[in-house]
């Protein structure tokens, strides 16, 4: 749609105000005079011509009475009836009689009276200009121009602004399908486009907020359920100890070990939940420092080594190049440890976990591959969802909180990188990620 700036529109309106009255004036002048030429003496209409001829005839017929007061009074009355004035001059050039003539507003008709070839006198007849029609046409043209401009302004300016105001009210009432009117005025069109972008942004923000709210409710419900299970078991064993059910020392030690295990499970769940919620806040500042990702990977391997040894799982670490990044070493170790813990949990006994890390251009890339069953097709898109545990074998009994993968993804993203999950072509799960490197 072609648009027009307001200042250009105002110039067009001004030009229209100036041209329309002038065009109507020319039209009225042509209708009255029959020509578009402008002269000092406008053409007289038929009635004025008859009056003029009558006065000239009266003056010419009474040349010998020009100085007679009675006749001058009679001539004055005739002139007043026609709104004309006259000046009578003798042959010698001496003014004999004159009525009050306003030369600024009258045209002058000059006559010379001759008799026997000699000048007997001169007449100057002052005729009033009759421009009433032209003046009226200018006034009408000005009013018509104002009317046309007011209608154009209503169509081009006022109505689009009114519709935009209505759209804002509809948006404020919660109606996201807001009809946004178009406009031929560039400034209003720019406001319309900005308003459209704002509506789309608000719509996206609203959908995201709704999604986050649903996720929050789900997390609260799931965490409440996950907290209830170990708490119920812990309470039961503690009541058993209190009631003396564990009569032997061996049974008492077993009850205490179970209570310790459940307490540790609660601690891990609360710690994961705290880290997960902390990653959601943009105000949370990373402790940025230069970090060697080789060191982070080695420390993470050491943290899961006991769990891997219990299942006779071999962890192979292949580190090449210089893998230096900037970030929070503690959080990066937490992210890698969660990934390794997940790999150990779902790798069968006597399996392998292969870790690789290298630097490519401006990225530090790492992969974690195991020899487990890998991810099911319907799990790949949900691996990093909070509290998602995949197949039935991946439930609370395995010890996972369901937040580890989500926490790892958010930590890597807070460091400007990305984390992906896939199945390796040789079998097993494949977790790959990258973080911007420090040059």
TrEMBL record:
CDD domains recorded: HAMP, HisKA
Signal peptide start-end: none
Pfam family for this entry, one: HATPase_c
Broad enzyme group: transferase
GO molecular function: ATP binding
Cellular localisation: Cell membrane
Keywords: ATP-binding, Cell membrane, Kinase, Membrane, Nucleotide-binding, Phosphoprotein, Transferase, Transmembrane, Transmembrane helix, Two-component regulatory system
Domain HAMP: 155-207
Domain Histidine kinase: 222-439
Protein topology in the membrane: Multi-pass membrane protein
Catalysed reactions, as listed in the record: ATP + protein L-histidine = ADP + protein N-phospho-L-histidine
Annotated transmembrane regions: 133-153
EC code: 2.7.13.3
InterPro entries recorded: BphY/WalK/GraS-like, HAMP_dom, HATPase_C_sf, HATPase_dom, His_kinase_dom, HisK_dim/P_dom, HisK_dim/P_sf, Sig_transdc_His_kin-like_C
Descriptive protein name: histidine kinase
């Amino acid at each position: 749609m072609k648009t027009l700036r307001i200042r250009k529109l105002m110039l067009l309106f001004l030009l229209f105000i100036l041209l329309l009255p002038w065009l109507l004036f020319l039209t009225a002048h042509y209708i009255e005079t029959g020509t578009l030429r402008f002269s000092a003496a406008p053409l007289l209409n038929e009635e004025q011509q008859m009056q003029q001829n009558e006065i000239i005839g009266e003056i010419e017929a009474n040349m010998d009475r020009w100085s007679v007061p009675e006749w001058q009074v009679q001539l004055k009355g005739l002139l007043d009836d026609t709104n004309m004035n006259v000046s009578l001059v003798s042959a010698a050039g001496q003014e004999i009689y004159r009525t009050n003539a306003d030369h600024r507003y009258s045209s002058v008709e000059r006559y010379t009276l001759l008799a026997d070839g000699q000048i007997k006198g001169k007449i100057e007849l002052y005729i009033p200009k009759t421009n009433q029609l032209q003046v009226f046409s200018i006034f009408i043209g000005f009013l018509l121009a104002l009317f046309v401009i007011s209608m154009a302004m209503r169509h081009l300016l006022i109505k689009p602004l009114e519709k935009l105001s209505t759209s804002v009210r509809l948006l404020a009432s919660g109606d996201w399908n807001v009809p946004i009117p178009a406009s031929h005025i560039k400034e209003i069109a720019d406001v319309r486009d900005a308003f459209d972008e704002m509506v789309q942004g608000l719509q996206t923000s609203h959908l995201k907020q709704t999604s986050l709210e649903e996720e929050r409710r789900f997390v609260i419900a799931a965490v409440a359920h996950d907290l209830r299970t170990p708490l119920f078991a812990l309470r039961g064993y503690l009541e058993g100890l209190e009631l003396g059910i564990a009569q032997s020392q061996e049974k008492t030690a077993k009850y205490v070990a179970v209570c310790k295990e459940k307490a540790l499970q609660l601690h891990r769940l609360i710690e994961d939940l705290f880290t997960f919620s902390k990653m959601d806040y943009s105000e949370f500042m990373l402790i940025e420092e230069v970090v060697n990702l080789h060191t982070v990977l080695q420390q993470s391997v050491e943290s899961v080594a006991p769990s891997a040894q219990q299942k006779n799982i071999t962890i192979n670490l292949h580190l090449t190049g210089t893998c230096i990044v900037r970030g929070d070493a503690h959080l990066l170790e937490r992210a890698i440890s969660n990934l390794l813990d997940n790999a150990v949990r779902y790798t069968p006994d006597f399996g392998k976990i292969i870790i690789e890390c290298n630097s490519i251009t401006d990225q530090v890339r790492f992969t974690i591959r195991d020899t487990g069953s890998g991810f099911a097709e319907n799990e790949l898109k949900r691996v990093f969802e909070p509290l998602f545990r995949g197949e039935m074998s991946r439930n609370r009994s395995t010890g996972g909180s369901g937040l580890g993968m989500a926490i790892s993804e958010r930590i890597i993203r807070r460091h400007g990188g990305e984390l992906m999950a896939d199945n390796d072509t040789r079998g097993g799960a494949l977790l790959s990620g990258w973080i911007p490197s420090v040059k």
